[in-house]
Structures are given as C-alpha cells and as structure tokens.
Amino acid sequence: MTHKRTAKRAGLAVGMIALLASALPTAAAAAPDHGPVAPEWCATVTVPGHRVDCGTVDRPLVAGKPALGTTEVSYAVVRHSAPGPAKGAVAVNPGGPGEVAIDRAEVFAHAMAGLLKDHDLLLVDPRGTGRSERIPCGVTDAEYRFGTRAQQRAAVERCAENLGPKAAAYTTAATADDIDAIRAEIGAPQLSLYGLSYGTYLMPVYAARHPERVRSIVLSGAYPHGFDPLVRPSAQAVSLSLRRVCERSAKAACDGKQAVKDLATTAAGLRARPMTVPITTDYGTYQVRFTEGKLANLLFEAASREVGMDPAGRSLLGDLPRALNRFVKGDAAPLRTLIQEDGATGSEEDQAPYVAVVCNDYRKAWKKDAPRKERWRQYRAALKSAAPGEHGAFSAKGFNEGPTDGGDVCIGWPRENTPDPQPTKLKLPDVPVLVLSGDLDANTPDANGKKAAKAFRDSRFFSVRNTGHVPEWEQSGCVTGVATRFLRTGTPGDTSCLRALPPIAVAPVRAAAHS
Description:
Blueprint: E1 52-60, E2 70-78, E3 88-93, H1 105-111, E4 119-125, H2 141-146, H3 149-163, H4 172-186, E5 191-196, H5 199-209, E6 214-220, H6 232-248, H7 256-272, E7 275-281, E8 284-290, H8 292-300, H9 316-328, H10 333-343, H11 352-361, H12 372-385, H13 396-399, E9 433-438, H14 446-454, E10 459-464, H15 478-489, H16 509-513
Parallel strand pairs: 3-4, 3-5, 5-6, 6-9, 9-10
Antiparallel strand pairs: 1-2, 2-4, 7-8
C-alpha cells in the first residue's frame, strides 16, 4: 500500500538494485533471437549471460467494451542460461501500482541469478506504464505528492475527468489478465509469482482468476485485500518501529518511549499549526504545507523505505528520533531537512496507473454507490468510530490524510461508469506461498503480512528483523536467497539469516540535546 514514486518510492523491487549492485557485471548484448521481430526497445534490455526476448500483446482496454479499443502491453523474458528447457517461469511485479519492470531486467536477474540458471524470468510493464502504451490523465507525481489534501482530492477528480470511460481500464483484474495473456503468448504452462508491495495485492488476484496457471507464490511487503480502510495497523506500527530502533540502537542512542511521546507532541503541534517547507526537485521548487497528515506519510511510508539497505549509514528512520526531539524543543531545522531530502525525488511521471487503480480497486470507508455528500458522512462516521489510541501517536483524521492511496483522497472518484472495488475475499489455489515482512515496516507492517498469509492454505510467514518495506533492500542476499530457494523448491530452507540482520544506525538524541 504505497504511492508510486519513480526514483525511490517505497514498495519497489527496485530495492534489489541495492543488492550487490557494485558486483553487477558490465552489460553485454543479448544473444540474437531468430523468432518474431522484437520491438526496437528490446535492444536496450540486456542481461549478461542470458538471451532476452521481448514482445507486445494487444489487450482490450476495458473488457466487454470493444468500442473503447485496445491497449498495447509490453513484456520481456530473460531466458535461463543452462542447456535444455526451462524448469519454470517466474513473473515479478515490483509494486506501485504502476511501477515498471522491463527496464530493471538486469537488476532482477542479478538478484535471482541462481534461479535463472534453469528458470525464465517474465517482466511485464503494466498497462499505462514503462514500455507499454501510455494512458495518461494529466496528474504528475510531484503535484500529487506535494499538494494539500484538498489539492490531492481535486487532482484525483481531474484524473478521472481526463480519462473518462478509460478510467475503467485501470484495474488489478485487468493487469492480472494481461499477465496471463502474455503467459500464453510465451508458451509457459504455469508461472511462479513474485509480488512486492502492490505486487502482493496483484498476484493473489492473478492466482484467483487463473488458479491452474500458478505453481507457487512469494509476497514481500504484503497486505491483505480486506485491509483496514482507516490504516490503523500502519499508524500503530509507526510507534512500534520507533521503539524498536531505539531499543536496538548502539549505546542507547534514543529512548523509544520518549521518541513516541515526541512524535505525539509533534503531530499535535502540526495539527494546530502546519509549517511551510520549500522542497526543490529537478522540476522546480514546491512550497509544501506540512501538516499532521504529511508527517504521517513521512513516518509510515517514507521512513519505511530503504531500511536495512545500509545499516551503518544514515536513514530517515534512524534520524527521526533526534529530529522529533529537536522539534519538540523548538528546533524545526532537523525535521525540515529530512522532509526536504525525502522530497527531492519528486518526478513528472503521470499518475494515472496509480490513481485509477487505487480509486477503482481499494477498499474505502464509504460505499461506492453513495453520492458524494453521503460518502463524506460515512467517512466522517468511520473516523469518529475509531477508538482513542487506535492511530497511535496521531489523530484518526490526521493520520488518514497521510496515505496517497487511502483516507478521503478518492472520495470524488466517479460512482458511475467505473468498476466495482476488487473483492476482498478470493478463492485461491492450494499452492505453496511465502510471505515476508520487514519488522520495521510501517507501510505494510507484520500485522498486514500475517493477514495476507492467512488467505492461503499452504503459507509461511516470516518477519525479517531490522528491515523495512520491502525486505529485499538489505544487501547481504539473505532475503532474496530465501525467496528464490522457495521459488525453486517450494520450501524456504534455512531462514535463520532473516533474524540475524544487523540493526540500523540511529542518530544519538542525547548528543543532539547539547549540540
């Protein structure tokens, strides 16, 4: 459950870029393919030691509505290196919704190198993204991220208006069916599914719609289809993550209970008096009104990203106890710096594949068919029903203004000519399933991962110590090793390394008090 970001957005399998990135060999040209003529862009998709086949399929824009036409969906297949036929094929989705996969072929292949000796790797750019045909709506990443909550709601409405009936093209079910059409195109009888972040929402939908085509599933940074629309598990996990990093820190760098108290004080202060923070990106400078909701987004989403990638180095999560403590003592500069550093990755990427999927599919705190006034009544009633403390250090209203894929952001999404939300109860195949969560991930916390695992009959859940969203950020190869072993054998094997990853560095709070 995370907002798509082009460069460093949480929930990406681009976290695998960190995995032994320095060890990547120099790219070599793919072996020639004597089959059908590949798209021109295929020449740029290279993986040393492997042939890469590419193609496109024309898919109905909206199933059952041929008048709306078709859309072109692109894919790449990294072929296995050993002689003889492949023992299987693995389809990877890196999240978003709307993250691309094809241009990360070398990264995925390197992280899964052992598996690719005798397995093929299928990478699909979901409709509207990457190498697939674009279906834009005129809302950019930067304006959506940095806007006020009212501006975000207005951007969602503008996106829907610009898409018109094409808004119905963006659903998880449509992407799942696109993947299966490509599976048939490449002649793979079955797929092993590897979903990260939003990919953990997509892959079970594929499994429910095409159960006979699924061999096994790995879900990393997972959340259930019936997730809490008021995101209480994430709010509670924010406080838990602060306590954990302090408890595990070298030389007691901070006190966990005090860090949570400082967070509550900071949230209350911003609730009463938001501050303006200038954020400069490659596309301009934005004056961001930093509210309790923006603080929530920083804490549960941004601070969960990249955790464990460089345990000894600086991280947003490791710097937060000190910044919150300084804010409470009247010094906003450290927190302001963290906000600006995180915001510098804003992009001009169109948000249609993100906005439309979450507004069409995700569970809301109102009924889809209700008119807007009634939606507001239902939403406010849901907020009012939240018990004190259920949102941790935040107010219910404030925290729910943080998620860019939840809260009230989709309240103006059309109720007519848009699909019904994705069902929350799926009939899933009885196949081996591995679910991984980072124990410092407040975006898709352990509580959500456990619920996602319970949807399957034959599932195993592991909480990965000292990692965030998704655990594949860590560089030792532990997590990808467990995952690829599971994809090969159906069992995770030795998982002791998941509990032995080192704690992250934490900026000393005591030192800050005397600086």
